[in-house]
């Protein structure tokens, strides 16, 4: 079966590796262009491109625009039986309709819940105890195609979005392999999504990542872990931006954002209850456990974070 695999970030790499390991070597990989990355802004290949090279896949396409007719023509020239999409851009029909058996996407939620660009972040921020992955056939409206299969994944009470992401990409690889096998065997009995159950998971912008200290301790805790490690929940101490990466709920009360303890541990009041900040970072500095951070930064009991 002639497969074209499309993906860019690390999330997609286990899926590509799993396909190759089980005899489904793609005839081509499509990924994002090399971009300047890191402090030196050196042009660097995407994680998927690096994996494709390591796996010996020779044909690698890196279109600047998926809407360019030349890209659709290049995909069509590959004569794909199936297009597999894992964390890639939104494809126009002219591209995904070139596959004889269709094109499917791996999404990081139990659709139709959390449709959109940030399903893992949104699920953790909402305090969900379970999420999962869904494979579905592509159609023009994003994340609405018929569901092929789903796999469930628990979310721990203190687990960060990054930790869920890392477990999910392995579960997703299982789902991708199983989906390819179902399609190959003609047993992919896809079912329509119930749009009445749909919830959005839009991209998160910087202002939304600001910590809402006036909310309950549970909501603040979920906000912090749901944005960890990227883009990072943030707050201000005076004019200094602090990013918080780990927390836990604890006892305490006070004006929201007030530092209640700043000794052996860092405790901050919320609108109801308090959170202990476990790991944080001053802008331009390293992430540190709270006790180490407090030894090098002048945060005192009674200070306000805003």
Description:
The structure is a single chain. With 306 residues, this protein is an alpha/beta fold. The protein folds into 2 domains: 3-197, Formyl transferase, N-terminal domain (Rossmann fold), CATH 3.40.50.170; 206-296, Formyl transferase, C-terminal domain (Methionyl-tRNA Fmet Formyltransferase, Chain A, domain 2), CATH 3.10.25. Helices cover 25% and strands 25% of the residues. The chain has helices at 13-21, 47-54, 69-77, 93-96, 119-125, 161-184, 217-226, 290-296; strands spanning 3-7, 28-30, 35-37, 42-44, 60-61, 82-86, 103-107, 130-137, 147-154, 233-237, 240-250, 259-262, 266-269, 274-282, 287-289. The strands form 3 sheets. The protein has a 7-stranded mixed sheet. Strands 10, 11, 12, 13, 14 and 15 form a 6-stranded antiparallel sheet that branches. α1 packs parallel to α6 (161-184) and α5 runs antiparallel to α7 (217-226). The protein starts with a strand and ends in a 10-residue tail after the last helix.
Question: Order of SSEs, N→C?
Answer: EHEEEHEHEHEHEEHHEEEEEEH
Could you name the CATH topology of the largest domain?
Answer: Rossmann fold
What's the CATH H-level superfamily name of the largest domain?
Formyl transferase, N-terminal domain
Distance between the termini: 56 Å
Q: Report the portion of residues in β strands.
A: 25-35%
> Helix content range of the residues, please?
25-40%
Count of domain modules = 2
């Amino acid at each position: 079966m002639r497969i074209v695999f499309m993906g860019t970030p690390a999330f997609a790499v286990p899926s590509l590796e799993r396909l190759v390991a089980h005899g489904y070597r793609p005839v081509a990989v499509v990924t994002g262009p090399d971009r300047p990355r890191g402090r030196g802004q050196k042009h660097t290949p995407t994680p998927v491109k690096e994996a494709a090279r390591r796996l010996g896949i020779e044909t690698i396409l890196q279109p600047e625009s998926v809407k360019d007719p030349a890209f659709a023509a290049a995909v069509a020239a590959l004569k794909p039986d199936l297009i597999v999409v894992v964390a890639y851009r939104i494809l126009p029909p002219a591209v995904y309709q070139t596959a004889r058996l269709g094109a499917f996407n791996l999404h990081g939620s139990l659709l139709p819940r959390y449709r959109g660009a940030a399903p893992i972040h949104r699920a953790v921020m909402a305090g969900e105890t379970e999420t999962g992955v869904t494979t579905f056939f592509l159609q023009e409206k994003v994340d609405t195609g018929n569901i092929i299969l789903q796999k469930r994944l628990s979310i721990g009470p203190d687990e960060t979005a990054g930790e869920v992401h890392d477990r999910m990409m392995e579960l997703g690889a299982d789902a991708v392999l199983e989906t390819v096998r179902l399609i190959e065997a003609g047993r992919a009995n896809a079912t329509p999504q119930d749009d009445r159950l749909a919830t959005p998971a839009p991209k998160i912008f910087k202002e939304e990542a600001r910590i809402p200290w006036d909310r309950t301790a549970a909501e603040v805790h979920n906000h912090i872990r749901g944005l960890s490690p990227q883009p990072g929940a943030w707050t201000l101490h005076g004019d200094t931006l602090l990013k918080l990466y780990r927390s836990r709920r604890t006892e305490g009360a006070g004006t929201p954002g007030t530092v209640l303890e700043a000794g052996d541990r860092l405790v901050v009041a919320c609108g109801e209850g308090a959170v202990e900040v476990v790991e944080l970072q001053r802008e331009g500095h390293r992430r540190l456990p709270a006790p180490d951070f407090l030894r090098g930064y002048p945060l005192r009991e009674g200070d306000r974070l805003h």
